[in-house]
Amino acid sequence: MSQETDEIKAKSDIIELIGGYIKLIPAGANHRALCPFHNEKTPSMMISQSKQIWKCFGCGEGGDIFDFVMKIENVEFPEALKILAGKAGVTLKHSSQTQEKKDTRLYDVCDLVSRYWHQVYLSSSQAESVRKYLADRGLSPEIIEDFRIGYSIDSWDDSSKFLTKKKFNDQLIFLAGMTVKKDKGFGFYDRFRGRIMFPIIDLSGRVVGFGGRTMKSDDTAKYINSPQTPIYNKSVVLYGLYQAKEAIKENDLCILVEGYMDVIPSHQAGVKNVVAISGTALTIGQIKILKRYTSNIALALDMDSAGRQAAERSIEIALGQEMNVRMIDLPSGKDPGECIANNPDQWRQAIGAGRPIMKYYFERVQEKHDINNPEDKKVIAKYLLEKIHLLGSPVEQDYWLKELSNKLSVSETVLRELIAKIINKQDVKYSRENTTITKVDSQVSHYKDDYDKEKVLFSRLLAALYNYPENLGKLIDTLRLEYLHNSFIFALYKELILFYTKNTDLISKIDVDKSKESSSDSDFDLLDLLKSWFDRKELVAEIDFLNQSYLLGQNDFGDLTSREIRSEIDDIVRTLKENYLTSTINNLKTELEQAEKSGDNKLVEKIYSQLNDLILQKN
Fold first, then answer.
1. Average pLDDT in the 279-299 region?
2. Are 37 and 61 in contact (CB under 8 A)?
3. In the chain, what are the domain boundaries?
4. What is the Cα Rg of the chain in Å?
5. What confidence tens digit (pLDDT) does each residue in 231-268 have?
């Protein structure tokens, strides 16, 4: 085995490998990058080409090419070995059948059937109409080859018969998403029949799923897609990203479109930094992957009702992750595919003319309402404040609040009061959606120890805040309600969020005082303000908890610097999040075992999906 790893290392370049996943910045003889394994704004990851090693001085992760692939692909060493061997052109002679994972077999199913469908497209008489259709859409043989477009014959079992002949069993074919269980009786039938097939490829170049476009005019579903599978996590995969990632890095921009037939013509026209969200909203997981390559996205989505809804949700998520968002207006055609067919130059010009999202919102609402009309003014203010509050950066929020104040001739104070009300409503809605968390005490007895630990941890959070209250905003931004199982702490923290929302300006003033090194003379007392807030609501137990936390702070945190306090808060929030993820993952694993024993494949798929999402977060 060591001989094979040495050969792979000798034939691999760490800069080329890591550069295929994230954007690298030359730094003398080395390279720097934003670490993909923790959130940061300043590059703290260093990569040495001469030594073929990498190290993040922010989170402490580091190692060689194998360590990087294991970490970023979330795989064990045998799978990392296969990935790197494939990239380096090394044939593995010593990998045994017993080491081969089920996931590897699923990749084999998807890869083989994609090649089969592509061959059917190229040579079968049954695909003649498909070849004509794609030619009429202007797709060249080269671009069809690049994206491995294929055709699934209109048969109930053609694809599954092909895979069975290649020694894959029915259960494996089903788990790969290629078949559907029959409603009556036993057995399976092909999921994709009589459809143009678009393979969905992950960042390592492996086929993980498919999208299929019908060729029947009477088919109710124009497109169907692979279900969630052990190797296809829809929340972290974007169509075309494998082909687009280098262009995204070069242009420092990712263009998001609706579907496959928007991505492929754009690549053919030379605009290759384009990926598709396939009719759904972006997820945080997809945003985090995109941030490896750029912090800038531009949306060019269909503006029918479904497209508009997906666009709005995608914008909300992207802004919350502090992405820079632009909107692209198409000069012709209902989607980028049609625009490119009409005139590829118009597509390029539209991209260049894309507007920042907040400017787009300001212009759109003013087109429909009179800024001088008092009633319209209220509508404009409400609409734009709801957009401004989505911005993840307080600096951006402040800028656009000032812009809105100038546009409407309304004081910033009034606007800040209005946006505080919007945030309050969001918090109330969020807590209602998560009311099941507050009932966990009586439902799950084995969480009792975690409840006590949670009280101790939250008490330390408050203790740290009393000494440096300017960190309250950071805590609110990073500690989510769902991380808390203890109903008492859950309710207390919810009140803390409401307190902060009402007193944002006052908390912000502390930052100014600190910068002037006059905090010791400040009249601001967080404990007194919190006790007054809780006293008005007659929350006696909470006030006792506040007092105890204050004494803890005097004892444990009195001599700590501001930086040490921030580190303490980070550690506690990280611990609470990890406890939440660990307990949830363990519960799901138990449910998965029961589902597998009962043979409930639909439930197995659902739990696999949930586990994938949570494990990705934990990693």
1. 84
2. yes
3. 2-98, 102-225, 242-353, 370-424, 441-598
4. 27
5. 888 878 899 999 999 999 999 999 999 889 999 999 99
